Amino acid sequence: MSAQRSALILACALALASTRAWATNLLSNGGFTGSLSGWTAQPAGSAFHDATTGLHGLGAARTVAGAGQTVQLTQCVTAVPGGMYDAQAYCRLSAAQDSATRCGIHVEWYAGNSCDSGFIVRRWSNQVTPADGWERASLRVRAPGGAHSVRLALWNSASSTPNSGSNAHHDLASLDLVLKGDLDNDDATDVVLRRTPPSNGHYVWFMDGTTRIGSEVALTPLQTDPFLVLGGVDEFTGDGRSDLVFQQTFSGAIEIWAMQGAKRLGEPQPVNVLPASNQWRVTATGHFNDDVTGSADLVLRNLTTQKLEVWMMDGPQRLSVKVPTPDQATDGNWRLVGAADFDQDAHTDFLWYNASTGKVVIWLLDAALVRTSGQFTNPDSAGDASWIVVGAGDYGVGVGGSLGTADILWRNSVSGKLVVWHMDTAGNRTAGLFTTPDAPVNPLDWNVVGPR
Ligand SMILES: [Ca+2]
Ligand SMILES: [Ca+2]
Ligand SMILES: [Ca+2]
Questions:
Q1: Mean of the pLDDT values across residues 349-364?
Q2: Does residue 398 surpass a pLDDT of 60?
């Protein structure tokens, strides 16, 4: 083994040992290290394993297309309806091919469980030409409502002009679920807590379902400004890891912290527009643009007028403002406490908590942010006014388990204990579970501030 290669393997082992945290590849054998295991070639016999021609000189897949032919290597995995996905692979075409030859990836969504029935839609990445060399083909796309499986295809199309046939290499294919509130992108939603004054320090519980992994982890830098409050935990930067939204309560100014786990990357990124007054508070996050996927968006609620606005974002850049219909709740007792796609129709919905009655309502929204129904959850409250909704996120246990439906996170203001309501897509509580542990040490010294 060369020194270079053993150093690479050692680096990989260290990366795995030091953190659980990196994109979870839903595909098997995306690096083609020893074979094409896990992949299906169409037509059969059009793909080969190549041990040394990969992006880093390791394994790659090679597809050979005849003139006018498209060949592909595919793999099918379970999908979460309405879930956000990052798909990518590197491909490279022989420089001898004509410029009409292409390679890239696409994803196909199916209602069936194994990509064999109920085709819904196909989405394409950018396309790579012979002049590009190794090039990343990628797309971020939201699973349509009702999509239960997804097929990723590495494809290679030869020109229709007669030639020797296209010859493409493919490497490092991945398909990653992008979950709101998942700071380390391990496909498990995390919890952000803030210590009560005078500490104000922000900490992360990295979770596996409803169980905390290890101890709480302090943000780096530890954010202790009493006038900088968390507005949400969601993905704004394109790397699949959730980021933090902070808002200055005096000015209303909003900033995004690009995160790698609990560590901030670079400086805070100021949002380019200041709210019209400091009464506008970022109260939830989610994806509200169904056509252009990418950055999460911000939901703002005015503490005085109760009005709502959704700021359509591209990272820290506000692109436009959408006003939902209706544009406010009936009275100020209703707090918008979260946004998630509760019915899995690929449109993000609003979660409301009534601070006076303790009741919980979900507004189902359509693509135009028009409320199509407003319904109490079942049960409609925790039955004890000391339980308060503090967040919304998916605290299921993995694809194929219960991951995929949005859940409601509660905190008891007397005991400080935390409970997750697992929900089904009809607004019914299917289970109510204490987190593990069920509270921080000195439970009343902490509040849960996200995700929501
Ligand atoms: Ca996580
Ligand atoms: Ca990010
Ligand atoms: Ca929905």
A1: 97
A2: no
**pLDDT classification of 400: cutoffs 50, 70, 90:** very low
- The ligand with the least distance to the CA atom of 185 is 1
**CA 294: distance to chain centroid?**
10
- For residue 260, how far is its CA from the centre of ligand 2 (angstroms)? 7
Q: Is the pLDDT of residue 161 over 70?
A: no
Asked whether 150 and 77 are in contact (CB, 8 A), the reply is yes
**Residues 6 or more apart whose Cβ sits within 8 Å of residue 267:** none
Residues 6+ apart with CB under 8 A from 302: 277, 279, 280, 281, 308
Across 264-292, average pLDDT: 94
User: Which one of the ligands is nearest to 233 CA?
Assistant: 2
C-alpha 139/C-alpha 86 separation (Å) is 6
Please report which ligand is nearest the Cα atom of 187.
1
Burial class (CB within 10 angstroms; exposed 0-12, middle 13-18, buried 19+) of 208 = middle
β pairing state of 446-450 and 191-195: antiparallel
- Percentage of the chain lying above the pLDDT 90 cut: 84
> Which residue in this structure is represented by tokens 């499986």?
149
Considering every ligand atom shown, identify the ligand nearest to the alpha carbon of residue 240 and give its number.
2
9 Cα to the center of ligand 1, angstroms: 25
Cα–ligand 3 centroid distance for 203 (angstroms): 30
State the Cα–Cα distance between residues 378 and 430, nearest whole angstrom: 9
Are 292 and 279 within 8 A, CB to CB?
no
Residue 132 Cα to ligand 3 midpoint, Å, equals 40
Residue 49 Cα to ligand 2 midpoint, Å, equals 34
**Ligand number with the minimum distance to the CA of 82:** 3
What ligand is nearest to the CA atom of residue 256? 2
User: Which ligand has its closest atom nearest to the C-alpha of 184?
Assistant: 1
C-alpha 206 to ligand 3 mean position (Å): 26
Q: Which residue has the higher pLDDT, 253 or 396?
A: 253
Across all residues in the chain, what is the average pLDDT?
A: 91
Q: Quote the CA–CA distance of 208 and 281 in Å, as a whole number.
A: 30
pLDDT score of 158 = 87
Q: Full-prediction pTM beyond 0.90?
A: yes
Ligand closest to CA 142: 3
Residues by chain with Cβ below 5 Å of ion ligand 3: 341, 343, 345, 347, 349
pLDDT band, residue 20 (cuts 50/70/90): very low
